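User: Second chain of the day. Same drill as before.
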Amino acid sequence: MARNLVLVVAIVATLLHGSAATSHVVGDSTGWTIPSGGASTYTSWASKQTFKQGDTLVFNFANGQHDVAKVTKSAYDACNGTNAITTVTTSPATITLNQTGEHYFICAFTGHCAAGQKLAVNVTKASSPSPAPQPSSSPKAASPTPAPKSSSPAPTPASAPASAPVTYTVGGSSGWIIPTNGGASFYTSWASGKTFKVGDILVFNFAKNQHNVEEVTKNNYDACGTSSPIATYNASPVRVTLNKTGEHYFICGFSGHCAAGQKLAINVTGGTGSTPSSPSPSPSPSGSETPSPGSSPSNPSSPSPAGSSGGSTSPPPKDSGASSLKAFGFSATLISLVAAAFFC
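Assistant: Same format as last time:
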């Protein structure tokens, strides 16, 4: 009986570990504020995190000076908090990530989002704990090991799991700018230590209306030509999914910027094992994005419709139904395991 009790305790510990959620403090010690480094501050912070369904975001800010508005992708790109999905005005704001896909947050105070107080996160499905082994009622006699047959083929080794796509922030904390020193070698040096694969993502952070991103041919890259680009992106941050192998070329289409060194060439090798995102629809003449055969912006899932309209001061509703089902499933599993242990 003592052995069975020890086994039950071990099973319960395993289940508790597998179901634990993570609380992410947005910006760490910086908190939720207008960042001195612009939008790349929160993009860089998010790139170091892994967000799972059920995790929480904690926004720390000065009451009356900031808020947290959950918005759509288009509202995020335009820094428009007018018709927010939810708005929380009291710090600390704790938001549960109860759906997979992309989630977008901004500060709706005038000018704050445009100055970089915005956050986009990608939420993946939480992993379920492995089923625990059932205790044996009585030890079984060991079966004799059969002699190996000379004609049996050697087992095929299992293939290694595919690596997850990597998100690269172009230029690191400097972002997508005219390099102040080094010219074109600045972005050549940044790319030289990296291995780009199909499915990986490039993120270009830049000041609105001061730069853009154009994917071009090699001839236009060499000549800094902006006629007939493969794709043009104007709304920062730009996320480009590398969906085929080979050389990819990017420049800033603003006059003189490419010649001053704002250009990037990378080589993309075999895929990461994930399916690349489908190209986005063609843009309007305003020119936010143009899809290309060489690369395409990622297409995030639509944010959760749950929540109050813009201006509401209450935090997003908790996923109480899902929590109740999880608790019930866990209790049923625990009861069956304890019963099995005591009756064996």
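The helical segments are 2-18, 40-47, 73-78, 185-192, 218-223, 320-343.

User: Great, on to the next one.
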